[in-house]
Amino acid sequence: MNSSPVLAVTLNTFREAVRDRILYNLVAFAVILIASAVLFGQISIGIEKIILINLGLSSISVFGLLIAIFLGINLVFKEIDKRSLYALLSKPVRRWQFLLGKFLGLNVTLLVNTIFMTAGFWAALYYLNRKFERQDQFIWVAIYFILLELSLVTAICLFFSCFSTPVLSAVFTFLLYIIGSFSADIRGFGELTHSAPLKALSTFVYYLVPNFSDFSVAAPVAHGKAVPGTLVLLNTIYTLCYASVLLVASMAVFSRKDLK
Amino acid sequence: MSRKVRAATVLAFVLAAWAASAAVQMRIDAEIAPYRNTSETLWIPSGKVLKRLSFGHEGLVADIYWTRAVQYYGGRRRDHKTDFSLLGPLLEITTDLDPHLMIAYKFGALFLSEAPPEGADQPEAAVRLIKKGIQANPDDWRMWHDLGFIYYWNLKDYSAAAAAYLEGSKNPKVHPWMKVMAATISQKGGNRETSRFLWTEVYQSTTDPSIRENALQHLNGLKALDDMEEIEKRVAAFHDQTGRWPQTLRELVTHGLLRGIPSDPEGFPYELGPDRKIKLHPKSKVELEEENEGTRS
Lengths: 260, 297
Prior knowledge:
The complex is a heterodimer of chains A (about 260) and B (about 300). Chain A is mainly alpha-helical and about 260 residues long. Chain A contains twelve helices and no strands. Chain A has one domain. Chain B has about 300 residues and is mainly alpha-helical. In chain B, strands 1-2 form a two-stranded antiparallel ribbon.
């Protein structure tokens, strides 16, 4: 596999993304929000650190999600709209390489953004406690899970942006995110019914939609509870598998897309 | 028009418009005040529903609800209101969202169980909250201590209190005093020393000023009871020595039975009542604990 075209598209996507001013606004807003957790803890009792961790991780996750969606929906559309895709595909770049590069480029962008937000978060945590504790190491696992979640959202965005407009892609991605957050309930509802077909359908939907609740470990981590290594491994494999499915589906759709 | 004049004009206009908007807002506040004084409501009373609506951020939503419970409790106390009807549901939602938020059980139970004006006077609800916490956090022996405390102090149910301390003492990580507490309460029921120990524990286990203040008030009340009991003994000694009752505490000082007029924990001097009982100074804010089984030495 010739990876240089993929690498070129990846770097180009990253460069293009970091030029976007809205990105800096979102990151700055997230950092301010994390810092405000220090003040928020003052109006409560005994949860200064817990609220900082919860608010920090939620900010990283929500702003990462916004960045992933707003950049992801334009990944393909913008290239077609600006007609830069034609120039690109006239070079020795295959369509799948273009898509893979776009996906990786956005993931790199999200990684860099998350690093900035995480730096703000750790600074706020240090400001609050003047030290780091042993159990704080589990926060890294929560941040890693956020990155996995964002990677999955990017893959969904990319998939929809291959055949839909940016607005519709955003709507579809957001709806799928909501459904994916409720997926455990979908199966739960099926188990409550006495209808075998309905139960089978709900189980099918449960495995079909991405299960975003798997990545939610902020609450236990805020209490200093460890996240099992098995869960880290399984979530990594799940993300790889699910994102691969979406990427391959995106490549299949995009390879048949009439670009004229 | 020069650039400076133009800039000054723009700035003046902006400031005037801002001042006008502030003046209008004050008028709006006055107009809208009657509508804002509606009773507080929980729009979503179910923690389980909120958990689903939080999209994986239930820890943060729990923190918000705990802060809301603290603000609600603090606001009711500040306004000298005795109706704490939303406190229980707020704590229920908080602990549904985050069953490991220990502070919500511990202090939530304290807010619920204390008698007005310090709390909601709902010790049974506090017991339910702590039992929920024990179920969600079986390894935390302190929850048994909190349960025993409510049975002991608020409900005066000493057998239940002793049972709670005994159950908690089975945890291998527990402090040895839990077992001692179980035995003491089982044998003696309520007594001032135990009460003092328990309130000292509350005082030392928090850095929150309002909870420390509440614990300190209870400790001051217990200290005042000790003092008054001791002074009454001296009054009786005076009677034994002179064959008459003293009219003032100054006479006890003159007779060498007191080194000076003793003061309560707030610094006000104790007074001798006409019934020969020691009283607090009228200006003293020390609250004496009820002289019942829970405070008797």
